[in-house]
Amino acid sequence: MPGNALKILVADYDLATTLASGQAFRWQPGAGVWTGVIHRHWVQLHGVPGGIEATTAGPVTDWSWLTHYLQTDLDLPTVLASFPADEPLRAAVQHARGLRLLRQDPWECLASFILSSTKQIVQIQQIVALVAERYGEPLAVPNGHSPTHAFPSAERLAALSEADLRDCKMGFRAPYLLAAARAVAGGKLDLERLRGVELAEAREALITLPGVGPKIADCVLLFAYDFPQAFPVDVWVMKALRRLYFPRRARSPARLQRFITTYFGPHSGYAQQYLFHYMRTHPNPV
DNA sequence: GCCCAGGTGAAGC
DNA sequence: GCTTCACATGGG
To answer: How many angstroms is C1' of C10 away from CA of A124?
Structure first.
């Protein structure tokens, strides 16, 4: 029987921390409820004892889009057990146990992170909301809720001008987003193909886009694909590495990179997310 | 006013 | 290889 509500049984899932953790930008907190958009679905989520309750605008028969996005089948204890047993990671995990990685749509994730450079998370949310409101297709929403839009397709954005995008307050990122939209819409960059290639090859393919460097590429590979060893290094993660792992003397970028790829194990991307969250919420040394 | 934000590319050495 | 700078915009 198709319904518009579902309870997902899952342990070790901190919904609020996950949705606010700066990997996805379309979630708005309410009174214990998170409202957002996944693909073409308006959805409300709230964490309850033993799991997550979801409500949609209309009847749903196949909920796999939701469970896949939330990654509720992932066994978190296995991931955590794969981390090196050091003090920084122990503290970071203890501080936010239940923090998860989502599995987003590659195009939306790529576009969002192109917009992310030297922006605070709240500002990225504002820009993404503006782009969706202006150029995304309207979605079905329950009575009493404000109108919501899907994130616009690459084809839709590719048809715009740079000025249209600059009007969405994205500044110097506008030509980068436009170039990415045109590369994807024109078939020059096949985001689906990246699902089946090695991490290094997928990274290279993304970095060919102007405005996409190693950090943004790794965000997309970690948050939208199945690359558990993608390890985006932003200002916060760099602070974590310097302060928690190399407090005495600075390491060259090459040495740091080698440390990242050898030290954190098969789920290093997850370790990165815990370190990121820990530094963001503990910006000052204890 | 000032500094900073889930960076990147270009120019300089 | 590494360092410095510009690039828009808004929050603290």
So the answer is: 11
pLDDT band at residue A1 using 50, 70 and 90 as cut-offs? low
Q: Say yes or no: Cβ of A102 under 7 A from any atom of strand B.
A: no
Fold of A106-223: Endonuclease III; domain 1 (1.10.340)
Cβ neighbours, 10 Å, residue A212:
24
Tell me which nucleotides of strand B come within 7 A of a protein CB: 4-9
Strand B contact with A96 (CB < 7 A): no
Instruction: Name which of A102, A113, A86 is nearest A270 in CA terms.
Output: A102
CATH architecture of the domain formed by A3-73: 2-Layer Sandwich (3.30)
**Which nt has its C1' nearest the CA of A127?**
C9
In this prediction, what percent of chain A has a pLDDT beyond 90? 94
What's the Rg (C-alpha) of chain A?
Answer: 19
Closest residue (Cα, C1') to C10: A123
Residue A284 pLDDT class (50, 70, 90 cuts): confident
* Active site (annotated) includes residue A215: yes
Q: Which of A83-87, A233-237, A280-284 has the lowest mean pLDDT?
A: A280-284
Check if the beta carbon of residue A71 is closer than 8 Å to that of residue A103.
Answer: yes
Whether any strand B atom is under 7 angstroms from the Cβ of A51: the reply reads: no
Look up residue A181 and give its two tokens.
Answer: 């939209």
In DSSP terms, which residues pair with A53 in a beta bridge? A7, A46
Instruction: Work out the mean pLDDT of chain A and round it to a whole number.
Output: 96
The boundaries of every CATH 1.10.340.30 domain in chain A are 106-223
Considering only the top CATH level, what class is A235-281?
mainly alpha
Residues of chain A with CATH 3.30.310.40: 3-73
